[in-house]
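Note to self: keep these together.
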Amino acid sequence: MVRMTAEERRESVLRAAVPEFAVGGLTGTSTEDIARRAGVSQPYLFRLFPSKKALFIASVQRTFERIATAFEEAADGTEGPEALAQMANAYGELLQDRNLLMHQMQAFAAADDPEVGDAARRGFGDVWNLVARVSGASSEEVRQFFATGMLINVVAALQLDLTDAQWALECVPPGLMNQVRPEMFSSGPSPEPTHTT
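Structure:
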């Protein structure tokens, strides 16, 4: 049996925390459930993270890091509208992991907590600055990119593919539906992330 290092255990706990927090958020998630999913004891979890909030904040940071890494890799060698299009496609790929989507929503919902709010703002700001830097887009273009992304978050979170109401169909901007994959709306179990950044 191969023994994991403390850093490997920490990564394992972080991976386990994201789907648990995606469902229960900061206040409704049990560290016992996270520890069980990660295959560690609850006391050991608290040796790695001093509190549930510290673990939540670390998972918020990790979520934004995944987005930033995916955007940077997708836009490599491009700029302007092409870079934005490549990053939009990368975001569609990321949202096949429903846990990532719902964890984002939980981070925004918990932002009244000063420490969580700081982490969420910092992560969002890092992604914003990255998009602006690698694309060279104007402030208005970056705002439109994020506005569309947040609309996609809502469309996916509400599973609007399950209704044929006209208002729901009109939520998705023309030409964007081909970027929205059915897996984004899946109400079944979300896949575990295949890697962390």
